Protein 1
Amino acid sequence: MDSLTPKQKQFYDSLISFFRRHQRLPSHREAADINGLQSKNSSLQYHQALEEKGYLERDESGNYRFTSAVDIWPGSDEAGTSIPVLGEITAGAMQEAVQADLGEITFSHLFPNVENVFALRVKGMSMSGLDISDGDYVLLSKTELRNGDVGAVLYNGETTLKKVHKEKDRIRLKPANPEFDDLVIEPDEAEEVQTLGKYLGHINQHGLFKSPY
């Protein structure tokens, strides 16, 4: 896929944004209006340029669609970091379905103080009791751990994800899998334990899961 000019990239991003809200590409008139173009012909020219560079293709009916090489769903690089809110749904009595553009949910809505959030990839199954498996990505916040919190710690040059229990002067690192043993750090070494982050949730192929704690 060839690189886009700044104007082509802006036009292309507007197509992605519209698609994520409406699950379809805009018409040439809609695309022209969104981008402040004077005519549908200008929109057509942008579509043709995107087709030539491999970002769009035409189906059997001649309608444009994204190519298979483009991932336009939330979470991908092209989609950005927000999810469209397409309307309201009742949790009480039934009501008429009304579609509306109510903005977007961003990562900061899911995790306050998102600037302090980072991720680590999990290796091992000691936290499977929380449905955290090998290969998952845990989301951690750069905050101190309270007694019983799940978090990432650094000890003796090694890192681990465990429930952290403070017992008098010693620290117990407890797995969420009964097949693994607790790691008990005695008082003379407890000061060497460094907190890396508190567990907020994890991400895997099934989606995003927030911490129940």
Protein 2
Amino acid sequence: MKKHKFKILLLVCFTVFSAKAQTVLTVDEAIKIALENNFDIRIAANDLKIDKTNVTIGNAGILPTVTANVVDNNGIQNSKQTRSDGTVNELDNAKNNSLNYGVGLNWTIFDGLGMFARYDQLKELQKLGEAELRLSILTSISDVISTYYNIAQQQQQLSALDSTIVISKQRLELANNRYTIGKASKLEVLNAQVDLNTDTTNLLRQKELYANTKIAMNQILARDPQTDFIVENEIVIDRTLQLGELTALAQKQNPQLEAQVINKRVSELQLKQIKANRYPVIGINTGYNFARTESSLGFTTQTSANGLTYGFTASMNIFDGFNQNRSEKVARLQVQNSQLLIEQQTENIKSQLASAFQTYLTNIELADLEQKNEEIAKQNLDITMEKFRIGTIPTIEFRTAQLNYITAQTRNNDAQFQAKLSEIALKELAGNLKF
């Protein structure tokens, strides 16, 4: 008995030492790494920078444009001129050139206020980019937390299977001892060996799953897939969530709903821009230009001029084949569709929250039930093990108690994990995952 306890103690000490040798990754640290490294977040952040860069009055068409122009034309021609008095002038390889250069300014000062609507639309598109970034962050953080607690659950399962291996080895040793002294048959030893091999196979499969899940976590964190770490085993479930509070938060913070509201505003501003086409477009222009021409043949061999030019332009659409009316009608329908999408998204979120909340309540009850069931299975295993030691029960009964305990541990670990996933899903829908 003391020998068996000593082996278990050695195994526990080795496990603790191995855990200390590895880096313990907390959930807060994982979230921080994801915020810094995750590719989806970084791409969304760059898209937002693009939207911010586009929000300028120049991009909206409010500022004037200033251009510098240079035109230099040269030619070499064989020329012949016959004047009205009959005089003929001829010149081969006559050179001709003209040079024009200057600076011009064009400024649309009125376009039915369409330029201001475009500027407001650019600002709304920036807000849309911010909502999309929050959605990307929320989704990535949800993936991080879910994967983190999946690893925690698998670590618990590994610990359970390690304990099972210890018990199965004790059983094999007891069977061998009983066989040696003639109190058990060879069949009992063989059965114990087969069960130990089965438990070892299950442990290897679990180790494979555990390693692959850690690789998936490293991928989410955008770091070396072979980075080794362990996570904190404890899964703490928030049992204080209320459906009414979550629904109120979702209507204020859910990025998908927020994006639909912004899209409606964008559609309304697009309608304003289209309506602006009914008004005249007035612009002013000015500039300073220099011109010079040279000709080898003719009455004037050189001319030059420079000075200021200015003026204004005005245009107004009178008839365009009823396209203006069609465009406004389409834009109004797009505004209506945007409102319908807001209502649809609101109802979808309410339905998802109600369904997820019911799952959350059920999973909490199951977590409590499975925890109690594991405690009962552990008591049953302890009693069965003592009876098996003194030889009052057969091997099959001991194995049944052992398998029941393994199953109870697995179900409890999974129940705790599923309850945590339900909590994460609710907070994600409400836009309330902390980061």
Protein 3
Amino acid sequence: MSKIDIPTIDTRRVNPFRPAVASLIGTAVEWYDYFIYGLAAATVLGPLFFPEISSTAGTMAAFATFSVGFIARPLGGIVMGHFGDRIGRKSMLVTSLMVMGVSTTGIGLLPTYDSIGVWAPILLVALRFLQGFGVGGEWSGAVLMAVEHAPASRKGLFGSFPQMGVPAGLILANLVYLAVSGAVDDDAFIGWAWRLPFLASALLVIVGLVMRFTIDESPAFARVINNQEQQRIPIASVLSNHWRTVALVAGGFIGINAVAYVFMVYLLNYSTTILEVDRNLMLAFSMIASILWLVVTPLSSVLSDRYGNRRVLAVGSVVLCVSAISLFPLVNSTKPALIVGATMFVALGMGAVYGPMAALFSSTFPAAIRYSGTSVGYQVGSVLGGGIAPTVAGGLYAGWNSSMPITVYLTIVTISSLVCLSILMRPSRPAWSI
């Protein structure tokens, strides 16, 4: 591959806020798409696409289609990671956003079971798979563009910008869902209005694309090209020489991802159908907690720049574990004050852990295979964490008629992640220059 003109950029003069903000906006749009599906799975997709089975089984089937997106995420991570390490980070960010926009808009236009029969759930699964493929390559590209443009002393802060896209996308999804569900009655919402949040994705994607087309390629990738360090098959190098690191990254991400998706997806269904808490009230609580998550994410990252990832992530992981243990017991009280307190406690733990992860995971792989390495580790962790968490939570409750097994499950995964992060942050482990 010939040299490119990007290395001529004087990185001391590059404003790191521009790629960081572009990563934040684009990531927020992509996660809006992803969370809109999760909210719909918890409320309307079961009866619309799986009406031939019981209400409980229909909801489980809707959550299973939610998990299908996670199955596609490692594939998207591998494919986009390959091209992200071969031809550049920026092109993959644009590609992933376009894939997400097409698939999400397609879901909004999809006929239901009553119209086309069994083809409705089949097409729903296919579009959900496409969503997962798109988001599979999103995270690493956004994080690397932000981190690799950032000054050495502020990698944590700028790496947190795309991390903030997750709670920002959730807030946006909840706002749109609240607005639509509050504007019409239940019959209208189930009949047609549920489609509006999906169709709104088309406008949001245009905004994200404009932002991403205006940023420069990563200086770290430019140096890889200029020094002819690119690998012919980056994923092969990752799996042959860095598989232990991939396993630790995946394990370190499982805990927060499982807690996040139980909080963001399953809790809405559990509280409204089992505890009979008002749906709009739970959506409002989720939005309040997400705002706290959004605020804590950059604050914890600033602290990681000052005091180091090890201290901040250790404290954050302990908070996350304790909050996961207390979540369902507090929500089961059905008292609004305790419910909002429980969700905010979880949000505090998630923000404290999620913020510093971007810079930490980026530093665990050399630049030539960084997109592939971080993508595979992160996405495998997402499958084993959030990908199965709503389905596991639903199955545990159905089997035991109690939320206690869900609490035990969350405790196990958060402790396991704490162990993996502790190993990953050992001083003896190599840290590559970002």
Protein 4
Amino acid sequence: MKILGIGSNYVTDLKEIEEKRNNKKFIFSKPESSLAVNCDVDYPSDITSNLIYEVELVVKIGKEGKNISKEDANSYISEIAVGIDYTAADLLNDARETKHPWDFAKGFDGAAPISSFKPASEYNLRDINFDLKINGIEKQKSNTAYMIHNFADIIVFISRYMTLQPGDLIFTGTPAVGKGEIFKGDHLQCSVNGELMLDFKMI
């Protein structure tokens, strides 16, 4: 199973989308061991002191595909969840300065908390609301209409380089504003279209 993510994929103003669609896409990966499904997550204090959260919708691939067409791309999505893309910002900064890979900054144990999945057929993929509350306070909120590269765009792009297989997960980007630092003891709640789907604590 592959876990892939796309960076910088949301805007705050719909007018910005066309301008930014030609920007270079960048994709990163997380190992399967980074997943934490519907459970509390240990704060990784042994490796970082600056942990950053980003709420994202996660799509699961339901069938194998390579060089997938834009017209067919959404048919490869079987299920949808909501998750957090955690980044150890201090490790990421070190990696950027030394031009080393991001693996440890993005792929430590617990770096990818996710909810259970629901069938993609339950959603209008172009109109999904999602949000994150921390300790009861809303921190991030957006709708898939504000994606620079929608689900189909992401699938087409990735499948040019690697075969997508059943069970692969794609973190599809975080709202353009609101990401920030998480602390031990924080309580995170993620909702999709108003339904609470992920509810956990940093311990």
